[in-house]
Amino acid sequence: MPSIAPTAPLHRIEQDSLGPVSVPADAYYGAQTARAMENFQISGTPIRHFPELIRALAMVKLAAARANRQLGDLPDEKFAAIEQACLEMIAGRFDDQFLLDVFQGGAGTSTNMNANEVIANRGLEILGEPRGHYATLHPNNDVNLSQSTNDVYPTAIRLALLMSYGRLSEALERLALAFDAKGSEFASIIKLGRTQLQDAVPMTLGQEFQAFAVTLREDEQRIEEASRLLLEVNLGGTAVGTGITADPAYAAIVVRELGMLTNRPFVVSQNLIEACWDTGAFVLFSATLKRTAVKLSKIANDLRLLSSGPRGGIGEINLPPEQPGSSIMPGKVNPVIPEVVNQVAFHVIGADLTVTLAAEAGQLQLNAMEPVIVFSLLQSLSLMTNAIDTLTTKCVTGITANPETCRKNLEASTALATGLVSLIGYERAAQLAKEILATGKTLRELLAEDPLLPDELIDQVFDLDALTRPSRLRRRPPVARS
């Protein structure tokens, strides 16, 4: 009979402080990660969905290894293996080894150990040793040397956010440019401005769209400002900020190495004990994302209102039709893109509350709730970036205007009466506005019927372009028509 080749074992047995653990033989993660995967089956969303966090962890580990080598605490052979493993992790090779749920207890310890174990086991391969042979290269003793989850994890969160927010800023700028373009395209279209959903004063459709661009660029600046607080890190503080197990020179060296590795001006926190539990930078960054979400939702609301109808609503603009709007009403097309932006905004606003509560829940020398903070922030960044790009490409760039509807709505309103205030006084202008509403006549018709108002004044009132900018008109005594 032909011989049967022996099959490779499906699992290996590793040992941690609680006892033996079965780990898949081909896994780069180890015992502590395997335990955490069993403990935290919560959301079904693994850490690998956020590769920026994995890369950030690898960069922190590499900076630590370089600092430890400079201090003489990490032998060259071990350092070389750790360095290569970290570089491969930064390149995305081991994303599939981060299967832990984003919701986890332990202040991020499971995620930190996931990184330590992956780096250690890949390092063992590089050294010609089997995975799990930690006597040669150890996840804690070597990869985690001079570190604690409590300084590695919050630093990695900061770095992950710094690597991620740029895509949001770029998306905001693309949307602002799209609104700028529409502002120029619609610059000559006079329309009715509204406050509290009531007739207000004339403006141009271009002015309305240009204001959208301005407010988005304001938030680009605010996000950039908030991101600067993320550059202060507590590396070197280890467990509670006292620096236990780390060389006195380690903090300055590791932060310098991280800065050179990432090309970012990281600085050591002035007080590492305070920095170990302080999550204020995350709270402010989250609040800035919420601010942007609120503005985006307001803009989405406006687009839905302005395009409402198309016959029974405002109907001053048309959104590009993306899909049929009803299973029962023929011809109905809904504003689905602004609607999805609204929903993303609601989610981001809720995530900000989660970040706030998690930050408040810190106790004594540590905040154990940082896993939900990083999940909330990275998810908000991703959702908002996708929603903004969708709004830009599938909605704003395809918006068209209905100039005749804009003019009709304006002339049928009481808005033009405001232009009379500086000419005939508030009381008389208010009386005319009431007459418009009572009679259904336009302001032009009412002015034509008043013999005390000169033709010149009527011409001034209906210089609609002049009514969309600061006016030089001044009140003067009425002169009867000849």
Brief description of this entry?
With 482 residues, the chain is mainly alpha-helical. Helix content is 55%, strand content 7%. Helix 7 packs antiparallel against helix 10.
Task: Record keyword descriptors for this entry.
single chain, 482 residues, mainly alpha, two-stranded antiparallel ribbon, two-stranded antiparallel sheet, 55% helix
Could you give the topology of this structure?
Elements: E1 11-16, E2 19-24, H1 31-39, H2 51-70, H3 76-90, H4 109-126, H5 139-143, H6 149-185, E3 190-195, E4 198-204, H7 205-228, E5 232-233, H8 250-262, E6 267-268, H9 272-277, H10 280-306, E7 317-318, H11 336-360, H12 370-394, E8 400-401, H13 403-411, H14 421-424, H15 426-439, H16 443-449, H17 455-461
Parallel strand pairs: 5-6
Antiparallel strand pairs: 1-2, 3-4, 7-8
Helix pairs in contact: 1-4, 2-3, 2-4, 2-6, 2-8, 3-4, 4-6, 6-7, 6-12, 7-10, 10-11, 10-12, 11-12
Explained architecture:
The protein has 482 residues and is mostly helical. The chain has helices at residues 31-39, 51-70, 76-90, 109-126, 139-143, 149-185, 205-228, 250-262, 272-277, 280-306, 336-360, 370-394, 403-411, 421-424, 426-439, 443-449, 455-461; strands at residues 11-16, 19-24, 190-195, 198-204, 232-233, 267-268, 317-318, 400-401. A hairpin with a 2-residue loop joins strand 3 and strand 4. Helix 2 crosses helix 8, helix 10 (280-306) packs antiparallel against helix 11 and helix 11 (336-360) packs antiparallel against helix 12. The longest helix is centred in the middle third of the chain and has 37 residues, at 149-185. The radius of gyration is 32 Å and the shape is elongated. The protein starts with 10 loop residues before the first strand and ends in a 21-residue tail after the last helix.
